[in-house]
Design goal:
Layout (H helix, E strand, L loop, with lengths): L1 H35 L1 H21 L5 E12 L27 E13 L6 H68 L4 H36 L28 H21 L5 E13 L2 E2 L5 E2 L11 E11 L5 H69 L5 H36 L3 H4 L3
GO molecular function: efflux transmembrane transporter activity; porin activity
Keywords: Cell outer membrane, Coiled coil, Membrane, Transmembrane, Transmembrane beta strand, Transport
Family: Belongs to the outer membrane factor (OMF) (TC 1.B.17) family.
Length: 454
């Protein structure tokens, strides 16, 4: 039993190790891109910034307390009465009996508090809007990562197909070389004309040109992959797994697509902003408090006359005041302006709702198309091996007939071209099946649908 079990275990471990290695290139590319690609990093930073905005919105419950200190040098003429809140600055000192041009120092320091403990629902809706905006940023981050991974995976599959085509062309060049050497031998023996030798030599040159062109295509894909991971490529990118095994039909997933999550979060955000705006006509309840000290270089004698003893006394705080109160402010004449703003937010919310429905409709249609695409690709991939086997058999038979002098150069070249086309079509059919599976994973928002079959 031990002698039988041990080889089975070893074979299983070796197969698992080889299979895991075939997953390494694409997994490594995706990991590198996630760490390095600027677009992904930018989306992550925006998500974190949105999270900080939620904290900032919640902290509006904290009272505003401002500390200030000032010093001034001014005349001390003063009159009681009202000034408008700008353009004219009040000066320190009590009312003066005469107009004086003398200047003295003054100072002040204090604390001013303003607190809105209750906002009649405005703050709550703004916090919920900020939280929904964070959900939108999170969904956008997921969508950015998903789209980049899909693009990178698709480009990697394109690269693998180009590499497979290069392999087919190299095999075709070897056949062209054999054909040329065969033609030289047959021409020497007089079985074929010497023209065939030149024509086969031309075919060998064409095969070399196709290989050079395909190598250039590979270099272009490598440049794109390097850009998508924002780093140098690993040494070995080859992976023949995709051209040996076909994917299976995948089941449905319950995961919500990041694009739908984004549209839903945008709709929720606009709804909360609309609710907050609709409450803008409600009163503003404020708790105001102050504590301050004031210094002035102007003094008042027993007869009510002002005089200056020492101008520097203005730097000494000698009057202290404090107070606290509640203010309730109600906008009375702005209701029409507020109503227009409500309508704007309401229409924006309706637009976001329709955008959500549009996204859902598109995703449902794309899922249906993706499923049918995979079914068709698998059906085609089941037929291409037959074409390849027939083309190979036909080429080998025609090559033997050419050696016997029974057919012409043209027939052999046509058979060789058909063999190349059939082999490329075979590998392309496998590539299209994996591309279809990647499409299914993309429209379902879950790349594990793709990776679980590797």
């Amino acid at each position: 039993m031990f002698k039988i079990t041990l080889p089975v275990v070893l074979i299983t471990l070796v197969w698992t190790n080889v299979h895991s290695q075939t997953q390494l290139p694409i997994k490594k590319l995706l990991e590198t891109a996630t760490k390095n690609y600027p677009g992904i990093l930018a989306a992550e930073a925006k998500k974190e910034a949105s999270g900080e905005m939620v904290k900032s919105t919640r902290r509006t419950l904290i009272p505003d307390i401002n500390a200030s200190a000032q010093a001034n040098y001014s005349t001390y003429n003063n009159l009681t009465g009202m000034f408008y809140p700008e353009y004219i600055l009040p000066v320190s000192g009590p009312p003066s009996t005469e107009n004086l041009n003398d200047m003295v120092w003054g100072s002040a320091a204090g604390l001013l508090m303003k607190w809105e403990p209750y906002t009649f629902g405005r703050r709550g809706n703004k916090v919920k809007a900020a939280e929904s905006s964070y959900q939108a940023s999170s969904a956008l981050n997921k969508l950015t990562l998903l789209e980049h991974q899909v693009r990178l995976s698709g480009t990697y599959l394109d690269y693998l197909l180009a590499d497979q085509i290069l392999d087919v062309l190299e095999s075709d060049r070897q056949r062209a070389k054999v054909n040329y050497e065969q033609a030289v031998s047959l021409a020497t023996s007089g079985l074929v004309s010497g023209v065939d030798t030149a024509r086969f030599h031309t075919e060998l040159s064409k095969a070399n040109i196709k290989i050079l062109q395909q190598q250039n295509t590979l270099l272009e894909y490598e440049a794109i992959l390097s850009e998508l991971i924002a780093a140098d490529l690993p040494e070995n990118l080859a992976d023949s797994t995709f051209f040996k095994v076909l994917p299976r039909l995948s089941g449905s997933t319950e995961m919500t697509h990041p694009r739908e999550q984004l549209a839903m979060a945008d709709w929720e955000t606009s709804q909360y902003l609309f609710k907050a705006e609709k409450l803008s006509w409600m009163p503003t309840l404020s708790v105001l408090g102050t504590a301050y000290g004031r210094g002035s270089g102007v003094e008042l004698d027993n007869n009510g006359n002002t005089f200056v003893d020492n101008p520097t006394d203005g730097f000494h705080l000698n009057r202290f005041n404090y107070g606290i109160g509640i203010q309730l402010a109600m906008p009375l004449t702005q209701i029409s302006r507020y109503q227009a703003r409500w309508k704007v937010k309401e229409l924006e919310a309706e637009a976001d709702k329709q955008e959500l429905e549009k996204v859902r409709l598109a995703l449902n249609k794309q899922k249906s198309v993706a499923d049918n695409t995979l079914i068709t690709a698998l059906a085609i991939a089941g037929e291409t091996p037959v074409q390849f086997q027939d083309a190979r058999y036909a080429y080998e038979a025609i090559q033997s007939q050419y050696q016997a002098g029974l057919i012409t150069f043209t027939e052999l070249i046509e058979a060789r071209n058909e063999l190349v086309a059939a082999e490329i079509e075979l590998r392309k059919s496998y590539w299209e099946a994996w591309k279809a599976l990647l499409y299914i994973a993309a429209v379902n928002g879950d790349l594990e649908i793709f990776f679980n079959q590797l």
